[in-house]
Amino acid sequence: MKKHIVVIAGDGIGQEVTAVGKQVLNRIAEKFGHEFTYDEALIGHVAIEATGNPLPAETIAKSKASDAILFGAVGHPKYDNDPSAKVRPEQGLLGIRKALGLYANLRPIKLFDELLQASSIKPEFLKGADILFFRELTGDVYFGERGRKDEGSTAYDTMIYSRYEVERIAVKAFEAAMTRRKKVCSVDKANVLESSRLWREVVQEVAKRYPDVEVEHQFIDAAAMLLIKDPRRFDVVVTGNLFGDILTDEASQIAGSMGMLASASVGDSTGLYEPIHGSAHDITGKGVANPLASVLSAALMLDISFGLKEEAEAVVNAVDQVLKAGYRTRDIADSNTPADKVLGTQAMGEQLLACL
Amino acid sequence: MKKHIVVIAGDGIGQEVTAVGKQVLNRIAEKFGHEFTYDEALIGHVAIEATGNPLPAETIAKSKASDAILFGAVGHPKYDNDPSAKVRPEQGLLGIRKALGLYANLRPIKLFDELLQASSIKPEFLKGADILFFRELTGDVYFGERGRKDEGSTAYDTMIYSRYEVERIAVKAFEAAMTRRKKVCSVDKANVLESSRLWREVVQEVAKRYPDVEVEHQFIDAAAMLLIKDPRRFDVVVTGNLFGDILTDEASQIAGSMGMLASASVGDSTGLYEPIHGSAHDITGKGVANPLASVLSAALMLDISFGLKEEAEAVVNAVDQVLKAGYRTRDIADSNTPADKVLGTQAMGEQLLACL
Ligand SMILES: [Mg+2]
Ligand SMILES: [Mg+2]
């Protein structure tokens, strides 16, 4: 299989971790007889520094022409202290999502046995948990009309969804469930919200096309509770932009470490694959960043954009093997980790390649 | 101190648990030299059966004339299967909140050492956790304009807050923090929502009046994560109606059991004190309901409505003592609980009274 991948490393540790992600993709290509070609493009702070624009037109053009995007991170501390800055690194990420029509954010929460202890949740509640979140990205209260009235003393936002927005992500969620444990949990607040009642209606309609998938509907407050009480009850979870924002962050804590979590943003064309950790400027350039989330993002790319299930599994298994061999980056090491097993970014990459 | 209390037991186990709550209040009155007088009033399904109205005018009148309300539960399974029913038990609770202007829901999450094991979260993360949530009750997306447009294919809800609504609950939260560990965490989504930016502005203004209180602002997604990662970092948490709905349910799982959680709904007059567990018709009339949440609701009443701190503490200590003595109701018993320590509602009440 021939595929063209754009690497958009972005800011901070983005450079270091995508370098390892790319090495793993190359090894997979070699081992399974594929041909992956690469291009690079700028985004975020590095793009602002080079061009004045967090999302240069060239980056959009290269992305549209590619089969998939391996994404690093955006962000720079200098903007955090200046909320008034009009040009910001994060605009690069929002802009590329919009330019590519990426309406679904996929976040798998799969726990590696070796890291079960890292969470504040008891391992016996976590063992075997394997959840795939679908968070809607283009609608909801993030994009509805907002403003002030009554001379500024009242502020409002509009939570809004249209049928087609719900339908297209529901279809993606049910399709994914068919390849997994065939369960979909749709999360809304339909006992109160009209937008949630529409959400639930459309999900129920889509569900009829997938009679083999078991569907349940949970209210967001109950879901936030059940995610801690019994994470293993969930397979695919599909929800709106706001509730998805909340639940996926909560779920990242179930996994114990942000350093291991990958995500995919997909729509009707090129998909974008990125770790959920940010640019982490405090450790940038020190060679200690955990590359496993970028590697697992590459595995998601193989699976979702290229349909290469076996190759994706090989990557996940390699991650499992290096963890079983006791290797850790600093962020996932604990007091039981021997000093010689604590690896830097590149050394962890080499252990991974040795398992592939 | 002379106080007049209306007991609104309501539906299901409400009758059984408020009976114990009242016994405890009586013992406190006796022991500390107060005079508590009582009245009773109907609400919910029992009110519908007796009068056709889930909130009879007499109930409102008695409540307004009282110093505090000891509330049980509302709800009946017969309505769950009939979503079209126009007259519903829950209307009683919403109606009385409105009639009394109860705009703040207080939910303390305090873990008894003996029950630390009941949560899915590791006890070492929970020990000492003591959080008081303030959830706004009368505004937000629950009460904004909602509807459909584009021939029903688009649905919207309006998230809305006015300054006075934020200010009055912020003041309550800061006042409470002054009597506790002097920390307030305000939760919003000010990086996206205009209503959250107003929320944050007003909380920052109120904060200036309480220079001794340490304030932090968290986004709802981060808060949902931190609540699991490090529950002990929180003292008072104040947030809007929707985010409060989500966080308090999530926090109830931290506590391991709904059967132990009390809440207070307060405004500018009579406060209402209720367990967060519902009417629990599956165990109604069996004498096995856990009365401790009603007893802890009575303790909240003593503290918040009557300012009787020492008396409130005596009740909480009595609960602690019966738990330390090994007594459990069925819902909080586990495989290590000897059969003779598993008590019914009334027997648990007697053990409590023996500790007061
Ligand atoms: Mg988030
Ligand atoms: Mg709730």
Characterization of this structure:
The structure is a homodimer of 356-residue chains. In chain A, helix 7 packs across helix 8 and helix 11 runs antiparallel to helix 12. Helix content of chain A is 42%, strand content 23%. The first copy, chain A, folds into two domains: 187 residues, 3-Layer(aba) Sandwich (Isopropylmalate Dehydrogenase), CATH 3.40.718.10; 149 residues, Isopropylmalate Dehydrogenase, CATH 3.40.718.10. Chain A has 356 residues and is α/β, with parallel strands linked by helices. Chain A has a ten-stranded mixed sheet with strand order 2-1-3-12-11-4-5-10-8-9, with helices on both faces. Chain A has a two-stranded antiparallel sheet with strand order 6-7. A two-stranded parallel ribbon of chain A has the order 13-14. Strand 7 of chain A pairs antiparallel with strand 7 of chain B. The site of one magnesium ion has 2 residues of chain B, from helix 10. Chains A, B: It holds the Pfam family Iso_dh.
Report how far the terminal alpha carbons of chain A are from each other. Answer: 18 Å
Hetero groups: magnesium ion
CATH topology of the largest domain in chain A: Isopropylmalate Dehydrogenase
Strand fraction of chain A:
15-25%
Oligomer: homodimer
Cα-atom radius of gyration of chain A: 20 Å
Secondary-structure element sequence of chain A?
EHEHHEHHEHEEEHEHEHEHEEHHEEH
Average of the residue pLDDT scores of chain A: 95
The geometry of chain A reads as globular
Named CATH architecture of the largest domain in chain A: 3-Layer(aba) Sandwich
CATH homologous superfamily of the largest domain in chain A - what is it? Isopropylmalate Dehydrogenase
| Spatial strand order of the main sheet of chain A | 2-1-3-12-11-4-5-10-8-9
